[in-house]
Design brief:
- There is one protein chain.
- The chain has 168 residues and is α+β, with helices and mostly antiparallel strands.
- The protein has 6 helices and 5 strands.
- It has 2 domains: 91 residues, Arc Repressor Mutant, subunit A; 60 residues, Dna Ligase, domain 1.
- The strands form 2 sheets. It has a 3-stranded mixed sheet with strand order 4-3-5, with no helix packed on it. Strands 1-2 form a two-stranded antiparallel sheet.
- α2 crosses α3.
- The radius of gyration is 21 Å and the shape is flat.
- The termini are far apart.
- The protein binds zinc ion (3 copies).
- One zinc ion binds next to loops.
Length: 168
């Protein structure tokens, strides 16, 4: 944690900013949680800890700085949920599946996908410094709960005897 703070301090210094107690607390908070949190959730977490000196605006601005410096990643989850943040340093690389129904975020790591990305980049002579892969859709729970329409191709409807035709 200390090294992350000093790295953040160096980053801020380069921008002519100081590592204030509030900025340090925002970093500590996001590095303590292993969830993907919205700025609002983070603000509430800080408030619950009894820190009344942190304003909502400070949380939002600090998150922007942390993202700019590569200390956190912002994940767009769609709907009206806005961005969800997670810390990056000391966290193994992973990609995401985002349920657009309940907002659940599943983390996964696939060597095959990582290797395929490297191969595609190499074909284009592209040097990758970082990447982000987000798959959007519906989680198993939401599908089981019937919250989302069944995919036409996976229809188990027995009355459907005609061959598969895609309407529209
Ligand atoms: Zn990846
Ligand atoms: Zn879901
Ligand atoms: Zn994640």
């Amino acid at each position: 944690m200390k090294s992350f703070l000093s790295r953040f301090e160096m980053f801020l210094h380069g921008k002519g900013l100081r590592l204030t107690a509030q900025r340090a607390e925002v970093l500590r908070c996001i590095y303590r949680t292993h969830r993907h949190v919205t700025a609002e959730e983070l603000f509430e977490m800080l408030r619950r800890k009894g820190d009344r000196s942190i304003s909502r605006a400070t949380v939002y601005r600090t998150l922007s700085l942390l993202e700019e410096g590569g200390f956190v990643d912002a994940l767009s989850v769609g709907r009206d949920q806005g961005l969800r943040y997670e810390h990056t340093l000391g966290h193994e690389h992973h990609d995401h599946m985002v349920c657009q129904e309940c907002g659940k975020i599943l983390e996964f790591h696939s060597e095959a996908i990582e290797a395929a990305q490297d191969a595609v980049a190499a074909e284009h002579g592209f040097k990758v410094t970082s990447h982000r892969l987000n798959m959007f859709g519906h989680c198993a729970d939401c599908q089981a709960a019937g919250k989302v329409p069944k995919d036409a191709d996976e229809s188990t409807d027995e009355s459907s005897t005609s061959s598969h035709e895609h309407a529209g």
